Amino acid sequence: MSSEYSDWDEADWSEDEGWYTVADQGGAGRPTFLGAGISWVTAALRGLLDVRFRVVATTTLLPAVYVLGLVVSVAVPTVLTVVIFQVSALLGALFLVVLAAPMALAFAATMRLTLEFLVNMTHLAGKVTHMTNLADDLHQTLADVAEPVSQLSEDFRAVQFWRFRQRRSTAAQRRVRN
Known about the structure:
The chain is mainly α and 178 residues long. 76% of the residues lie in helices and 2% in strands. The protein contains three helices and two strands, in the order E-E-H-H-H. Strands 1-2 form a two-stranded antiparallel sheet.
């Protein structure tokens, strides 16, 4: 996976990323979750400790942030339900049925939509970077072509000037003959 902002691409979001097989480590060929976990932790720490923001940590940290958000979205209504149950069992049951479940779903949906927005902004940033690079390349190519075209245009005007002058002199000579 590319880790630089300048060369980030959608192709970096492969589904099998981070999975190692035992065959890669000299074993039988089944996936090892320990290898994948170590790889993920290493990539996450590298992204978190990059103080110059050269490493893209969004794709690495997003699953952990989502799981943490889901845990919080369930924990908050659960804690509130327990506190209200301590005050009154009827209010606790009413809160659990009427407010706790929709609150957990609302928190989870908000977390999901926010993170999807973040992923879309990351995709957009990658595309804008790509378009900027294309524009820079186009500008450089046009600059390389502009100078020879300008020289050719000047040469063409010089040829036209002499042709026009030659026609004028030929027309003047005809008048003199007549």
